[in-house]
Protein backbone atom coordinates (compact mmCIF):
# COMPACT_ATOMS: atom_id res chain seq x y z
CA UNK A 1 0.00 0.00 0.00
CA UNK A 2 1.25 3.48 -0.84
CA UNK A 3 -0.79 5.07 1.98
CA UNK A 4 -2.28 3.36 5.02
CA UNK A 5 -4.19 4.93 7.91
CA UNK A 6 -5.67 3.32 11.01
CA UNK A 7 -7.91 5.24 13.40
CA UNK A 8 -6.30 8.46 12.15
CA UNK A 9 -7.49 11.71 13.68
CA UNK A 10 -6.51 15.34 13.99
CA UNK A 11 -7.91 17.96 16.36
CA UNK A 12 -7.48 21.73 16.47
CA UNK A 13 -8.35 22.53 20.05
CA UNK A 14 -11.84 21.12 20.51
CA UNK A 15 -12.59 20.97 16.79
CA UNK A 16 -12.06 17.61 15.12
CA UNK A 17 -10.83 17.97 11.52
CA UNK A 18 -10.42 14.23 10.94
CA UNK A 19 -11.72 11.31 12.98
CA UNK A 20 -11.26 7.55 13.01
CA UNK A 21 -9.97 7.57 9.42
CA UNK A 22 -9.06 4.05 8.34
CA UNK A 23 -8.11 3.38 4.73
CA UNK A 24 -5.65 1.64 2.43
CA UNK A 25 -4.62 3.20 -0.87
CA UNK A 26 -2.86 0.74 -3.20
CA UNK A 27 0.22 1.78 -5.14
CA UNK A 28 -0.06 2.52 -8.84
CA UNK A 29 -3.44 4.23 -8.69
CA UNK A 30 -4.73 7.74 -9.24
CA UNK A 31 -7.08 8.19 -6.28
CA UNK A 32 -9.80 10.81 -6.23
CA UNK A 33 -10.47 12.26 -2.78
CA UNK A 34 -13.93 13.81 -2.62
CA UNK A 35 -16.03 15.50 0.03
CA UNK A 36 -17.61 18.81 0.99
CA UNK A 37 -15.70 21.70 2.53
CA UNK A 38 -14.68 20.82 6.07
CA UNK A 39 -14.79 17.07 5.46
CA UNK A 40 -11.08 16.64 6.25
CA UNK A 41 -9.57 16.28 2.77
CA UNK A 42 -6.84 18.91 3.20
CA UNK A 43 -6.12 17.65 6.70
CA UNK A 44 -5.61 14.09 5.41
CA UNK A 45 -3.28 15.28 2.65
CA UNK A 46 -1.28 17.46 5.04
CA UNK A 47 -0.92 14.52 7.41
CA UNK A 48 0.25 12.32 4.51
CA UNK A 49 2.79 14.97 3.46
CA UNK A 50 4.15 15.33 6.97
CA UNK A 51 2.97 18.94 7.26
CA UNK A 52 0.80 17.96 10.24
CA UNK A 53 1.11 15.28 12.91
CA UNK A 54 -1.83 13.13 14.06
CA UNK A 55 -3.46 13.62 17.42
CA UNK A 56 -4.66 10.02 17.32
CA UNK A 57 -4.14 6.90 15.24
CA UNK A 58 -1.38 6.16 12.75
CA UNK A 59 -0.55 6.95 9.14
CA UNK A 60 2.07 5.30 6.96
CA UNK A 61 3.12 6.61 3.55
CA UNK A 62 5.51 4.81 1.20
CA UNK A 63 6.39 2.43 4.03
CA UNK A 64 7.34 5.10 6.57
CA UNK A 65 6.12 7.83 8.87
CA UNK A 66 5.37 11.08 6.98
CA UNK A 67 7.99 13.77 7.41
CA UNK A 68 10.29 11.50 9.42
CA UNK A 69 13.48 12.41 7.55
CA UNK A 70 15.10 13.44 4.30
CA UNK A 71 14.68 10.03 2.69
CA UNK A 72 10.99 9.89 3.61
CA UNK A 73 10.32 13.46 2.44
CA UNK A 74 11.87 12.65 -0.93
CA UNK A 75 9.24 9.96 -1.53
CA UNK A 76 6.28 12.38 -1.44
CA UNK A 77 5.45 15.35 -3.66
CA UNK A 78 2.80 17.80 -2.46
CA UNK A 79 1.01 20.57 -4.33
CA UNK A 80 -1.13 22.49 -1.85
CA UNK A 81 -4.51 24.01 -2.61
CA UNK A 82 -3.17 27.43 -3.57
CA UNK A 83 -0.56 25.84 -5.92
CA UNK A 84 2.13 27.79 -4.04
CA UNK A 85 4.75 29.67 -5.99
CA UNK A 86 6.83 32.72 -5.11
CA UNK A 87 5.67 35.77 -7.04
CA UNK A 88 9.12 37.42 -7.02
CA UNK A 89 11.03 34.36 -8.28
CA UNK A 90 11.39 33.43 -11.93
CA UNK A 91 10.46 30.01 -13.29
CA UNK A 92 14.16 29.12 -13.48
CA UNK A 93 14.70 30.21 -9.87
CA UNK A 94 11.84 27.94 -8.77
CA UNK A 95 13.53 25.02 -10.51
CA UNK A 96 16.91 25.93 -8.97
CA UNK A 97 15.27 26.01 -5.54
CA UNK A 98 13.68 22.63 -6.20
CA UNK A 99 17.07 21.20 -7.15
CA UNK A 100 18.63 22.50 -3.93
CA UNK A 101 15.89 21.10 -1.69
CA UNK A 102 15.31 17.70 -3.27
CA UNK A 103 18.13 15.11 -3.46
CA UNK A 104 16.40 13.12 -6.21
CA UNK A 105 15.68 16.17 -8.38
CA UNK A 106 15.50 15.51 -12.13
CA UNK A 107 16.61 18.78 -13.73
CA UNK A 108 16.28 17.47 -17.28
CA UNK A 109 12.68 16.49 -16.62
CA UNK A 110 11.89 19.87 -15.06
CA UNK A 111 13.25 21.85 -18.02
CA UNK A 112 11.71 19.50 -20.57
CA UNK A 113 8.30 20.12 -18.98
CA UNK A 114 8.51 23.90 -18.83
CA UNK A 115 9.77 23.98 -22.43
CA UNK A 116 6.90 21.79 -23.60
CA UNK A 117 4.43 23.93 -21.64
CA UNK A 118 5.81 27.14 -23.12
CA UNK A 119 6.90 28.63 -19.78
CA UNK A 120 9.63 31.27 -20.07
CA UNK A 121 12.41 30.47 -17.55
CA UNK A 122 13.01 34.20 -17.08
CA UNK A 123 9.34 35.00 -16.33
CA UNK A 124 8.48 35.77 -12.71
CA UNK A 125 5.78 33.57 -11.22
CA UNK A 126 3.74 36.61 -10.27
CA UNK A 127 3.27 37.37 -13.98
CA UNK A 128 2.08 33.86 -14.90
CA UNK A 129 -1.56 32.93 -15.40
CA UNK A 130 -3.29 30.68 -12.87
CA UNK A 131 -2.94 27.70 -15.18
CA UNK A 132 0.76 28.39 -15.71
CA UNK A 133 1.38 28.68 -11.95
CA UNK A 134 -0.44 25.38 -11.43
CA UNK A 135 1.72 23.74 -14.10
CA UNK A 136 4.88 25.17 -12.51
CA UNK A 137 3.86 23.78 -9.12
CA UNK A 138 3.09 20.40 -10.74
CA UNK A 139 6.48 20.45 -12.48
CA UNK A 140 8.23 20.92 -9.15
CA UNK A 141 6.17 18.14 -7.59
CA UNK A 142 6.98 15.70 -10.40
CA UNK A 143 10.65 16.65 -10.89
CA UNK A 144 11.51 15.68 -7.33
CA UNK A 145 10.74 12.13 -8.54
CA UNK A 146 8.40 11.11 -5.71
CA UNK A 147 6.69 7.75 -5.36
CA UNK A 148 3.47 9.47 -4.27
CA UNK A 149 2.14 12.82 -5.51
CA UNK A 150 -0.48 14.58 -3.36
CA UNK A 151 -2.60 17.25 -5.06
CA UNK A 152 -4.99 19.37 -2.98
CA UNK A 153 -7.61 21.04 -5.22
CA UNK A 154 -4.94 21.96 -7.80
CA UNK A 155 -7.42 23.10 -10.48
CA UNK A 156 -10.09 24.74 -8.33
CA UNK A 157 -9.26 28.26 -9.51
CA UNK A 158 -8.65 27.42 -13.17
CA UNK A 159 -10.93 27.97 -16.15
CA UNK A 160 -12.27 24.84 -17.93
CA UNK A 161 -9.61 24.87 -20.67
CA UNK A 162 -6.71 25.28 -18.22
CA UNK A 163 -8.26 22.58 -16.03
CA UNK A 164 -8.47 20.15 -18.94
CA UNK A 165 -4.87 20.87 -19.97
CA UNK A 166 -3.66 20.36 -16.41
CA UNK A 167 -5.49 17.02 -16.11
CA UNK A 168 -4.23 15.79 -19.47
CA UNK A 169 -0.68 16.70 -18.53
CA UNK A 170 -1.06 14.98 -15.17
CA UNK A 171 -2.19 11.74 -16.82
CA UNK A 172 0.72 11.81 -19.24
CA UNK A 173 3.11 12.25 -16.32
CA UNK A 174 1.49 9.39 -14.40
CA UNK A 175 1.79 7.08 -17.39
CA UNK A 176 5.38 8.10 -18.11
CA UNK A 177 6.79 8.09 -14.57
CA UNK A 178 4.65 5.49 -12.78
CA UNK A 179 3.44 7.83 -10.06
CA UNK A 180 0.83 7.04 -7.47
CA UNK A 181 -1.43 10.09 -7.04
CA UNK A 182 -4.01 11.24 -4.52
CA UNK A 183 -6.03 14.09 -6.01
CA UNK A 184 -8.50 16.10 -3.94
CA UNK A 185 -11.23 17.86 -5.90
CA UNK A 186 -14.87 18.97 -5.82
CA UNK A 187 -15.04 18.49 -9.60
CA UNK A 188 -16.20 14.91 -9.96
CA UNK A 189 -16.28 15.08 -13.76
CA UNK A 190 -12.54 15.81 -13.74
CA UNK A 191 -11.89 12.89 -11.41
CA UNK A 192 -13.84 10.52 -13.64
CA UNK A 193 -11.45 11.35 -16.50
CA UNK A 194 -8.20 10.74 -14.63
CA UNK A 195 -8.81 8.57 -11.54
CA UNK A 196 -9.31 4.84 -11.10
CA UNK A 197 -9.77 4.77 -7.33
CA UNK A 198 -12.15 6.73 -5.08
CA UNK A 199 -12.38 7.89 -1.47
CA UNK A 200 -15.37 9.86 -0.19
CA UNK A 201 -14.93 11.79 3.07
CA UNK A 202 -17.91 13.14 5.00
CA UNK A 203 -17.96 14.66 8.46
CA UNK A 204 -14.23 13.89 8.78
CA UNK A 205 -14.81 10.15 8.20
CA UNK A 206 -14.37 7.81 5.23
CA UNK A 207 -17.74 6.91 3.68
CA UNK A 208 -16.51 4.75 0.79
CA UNK A 209 -13.20 3.59 -0.62
CA UNK A 210 -12.51 1.43 -3.64
CA UNK A 211 -11.55 1.06 -7.27
CA UNK A 212 -13.86 2.66 -9.82
CA UNK A 213 -14.54 -0.54 -11.77
CA UNK A 214 -15.51 -2.50 -8.67
CA UNK A 215 -17.65 0.30 -7.30
CA UNK A 216 -19.54 0.66 -10.58
CA UNK A 217 -20.02 -3.12 -10.77
CA UNK A 218 -21.67 -3.26 -7.33
CA UNK A 219 -23.95 -0.20 -7.42
CA UNK A 220 -27.17 0.04 -9.42
CA UNK A 221 -30.19 2.24 -10.00
CA UNK A 222 -33.48 0.37 -9.61
CA UNK A 223 -36.74 1.74 -10.99
CA UNK A 224 -40.09 0.04 -10.51
CA UNK A 225 -43.59 0.20 -9.01
CA UNK A 226 -43.80 2.12 -5.76
CA UNK A 227 -42.90 -0.03 -2.78
CA UNK A 228 -41.59 0.07 0.76
CA UNK A 229 -37.78 -0.26 0.78
CA UNK A 230 -38.02 -2.39 3.94
CA UNK A 231 -39.25 -5.23 1.71
CA UNK A 232 -35.96 -5.41 -0.21
CA UNK A 233 -33.56 -8.35 0.28
CA UNK A 234 -31.06 -7.79 3.08
CA UNK A 235 -28.13 -7.95 0.65
CA UNK A 236 -29.32 -4.77 -1.07
CA UNK A 237 -28.04 -1.72 0.81
CA UNK A 238 -30.18 1.31 -0.08
CA UNK A 239 -28.15 4.52 -0.49
CA UNK A 240 -30.83 6.82 -1.86
CA UNK A 241 -34.57 6.57 -2.52
CA UNK A 242 -37.18 8.72 -4.23
CA UNK A 243 -40.89 8.10 -4.80
CA UNK A 244 -43.64 9.35 -7.05
CA UNK A 245 -47.26 8.31 -6.71
CA UNK A 246 -46.63 5.14 -8.71
CA UNK A 247 -42.86 4.68 -8.95
CA UNK A 248 -39.86 4.11 -6.70
CA UNK A 249 -36.27 4.81 -7.73
CA UNK A 250 -33.38 3.49 -5.64
CA UNK A 251 -29.62 3.52 -5.72
CA UNK A 252 -28.39 0.34 -4.07
CA UNK A 253 -25.13 -1.40 -3.28
CA UNK A 254 -25.08 -5.17 -3.68
CA UNK A 255 -22.68 -7.86 -4.81
CA UNK A 256 -25.54 -10.25 -5.59
CA UNK A 257 -27.67 -10.45 -8.75
CA UNK A 258 -30.93 -8.49 -8.70
CA UNK A 259 -33.53 -11.12 -9.45
CA UNK A 260 -36.81 -9.26 -8.86
CA UNK A 261 -38.36 -8.81 -12.35
CA UNK A 262 -40.33 -5.77 -11.14
CA UNK A 263 -37.16 -3.71 -11.14
CA UNK A 264 -35.65 -2.02 -14.17
CA UNK A 265 -31.90 -2.10 -13.45
CA UNK A 266 -29.50 0.52 -14.86
CA UNK A 267 -25.85 1.42 -14.21
CA UNK A 268 -24.71 4.45 -12.23
CA UNK A 269 -21.88 6.93 -12.65
CA UNK A 270 -19.14 7.88 -10.21
CA UNK A 271 -20.92 11.20 -9.72
CA UNK A 272 -24.10 9.30 -8.78
CA UNK A 273 -22.12 7.37 -6.16
CA UNK A 274 -20.42 10.44 -4.73
CA UNK A 275 -23.70 12.32 -4.35
CA UNK A 276 -25.44 9.31 -2.82
CA UNK A 277 -22.76 8.74 -0.19
CA UNK A 278 -22.40 12.44 0.58
CA UNK A 279 -26.17 12.75 1.08
CA UNK A 280 -26.57 9.64 3.20
CA UNK A 281 -26.47 9.85 7.01
CA UNK A 282 -23.59 7.96 8.61
CA UNK A 283 -25.24 4.93 10.18
CA UNK A 284 -22.69 2.17 9.64
CA UNK A 285 -18.96 1.63 8.92
CA UNK A 286 -17.53 2.85 5.63
CA UNK A 287 -17.88 0.67 2.55
CA UNK A 288 -14.48 -0.50 1.34
CA UNK A 289 -14.20 -2.15 -2.06
CA UNK A 290 -10.60 -2.77 -3.03
CA UNK A 291 -10.64 -5.94 -5.12
Task: Give a written overview of the molecule.
By secondary structure, this protein is of the alpha/beta class. It has 2 domains: 3-211, Rossmann fold, CATH 3.40.50; 218-284. It is 31% helix and 30% strand. The protein has helices spanning 41-49, 70-74, 91-101, 107-117, 130-143, 160-177, 188-194, 212-217, 270-279; strands spanning 3-12, 15-25, 30-34, 56-61, 76-79, 148-152, 180-184, 197-202, 205-211, 219-225, 237-243, 247-253, 264-267, 287-289. It has a 7-stranded mixed sheet, sandwiched between helices. A 4-stranded antiparallel sheet has the order 11-12-10-13. Helix 4 packs antiparallel against helix 5 and helix 5 (130-143) runs parallel beside helix 6 (160-177). The longest helix is centred in the middle third of the chain and has 18 residues, at 160-177. The chain is elongated, with a radius of gyration of 21 Å. 37% of the residues are buried. The model has no long low-confidence stretch (mean pLDDT 89).
